[in-house]
Amino acid sequence: MSMGGRLATVLGLFLVAVGLVVWGVATLLTPGVPGGVVNFTNTQAAGQPVNLTVQTVGAIGFGSHPTWVSYLVKDPRTGQWIHDTSWKLPANTVINMTVLQFDSGSPLRNQEWGQVQGTVNGAATLNGKSFSVYNSNTGNGVGHTFAIPQLNVSVPLVGVNSNANVCGAGPCQLSSPHNVETFSFKTPGPGTYNWQCFVPCALGYLFGNGGAMSTQNYMGGELEVVG
Ligand SMILES: [Cu+2]
Predict the structure, then answer these.
(1) Per-residue confidence (pLDDT) for residue 85, from 0 to 100
(2) How far is the CA of 44 from the centre of ligand 1 (A)?
(3) How many angstroms separate the alpha carbon of residue 142 from the centre of ligand 1?
(4) By C-alpha distance, which of 145, 26, 38, 147 is closest to 84?
(5) What is the CATH T-level fold of the domain 37-226, as seen in this structure?
(6) For residue 50, pLDDT beyond 60
(7) What would the pLDDT profile of 161-181 be if each residue is shown by its tens digit?
(8) 115 Cα to the center of ligand 1, angstroms
């Protein structure tokens, strides 16, 4: 092979290696499954409340961690459930959340997490009934919380009866036992706000805090609030 040919081969291999490194880093930094960010900024007229529906499942059932607990979000356009916890929302807008809770629960380690905080009118509804605090030592306990620490929002998600035929793999269908919770919060000005579950719900991890609790798209995500 000529000198020029060898140089071209070396250069070509070098570029392939650089490409692989860039692709690898980009993949690591954006583990979001489809789409990256679910866009809720153009689903309704400007200034109108945004409807956002999620479900919480005891086991996601697919992907690289099928046994992990997870949130899923309903695509506002197609109605499909997608495994993506980064949502783009309009600023200074009321977000009407509906949570379909398919997971079982337990008594909370911290009773503070049983309080509804930071929502419009300080309350949430559980299967149609308004509540502002849930005693997790009663009933089926609490499975998860939906919390946005920077906005002081926190809502306990009440568990379903673990002896019932609990949905084993997401996305769960309405025919499986579930609780419906609704609440509203108002987005602030533009910025990035993290949201997460505070109940150490990652089975099999030290104190329940690893795995799904510390991985994007499972028990936490990002609100990308835009003007
Ligand atoms: Cu959780």
Answers:
(1) 97
(2) 29
(3) 9
(4) 38
(5) Immunoglobulin-like (2.60.40)
(6) yes
(7) 998 899 999 999 999 999 999
(8) 16
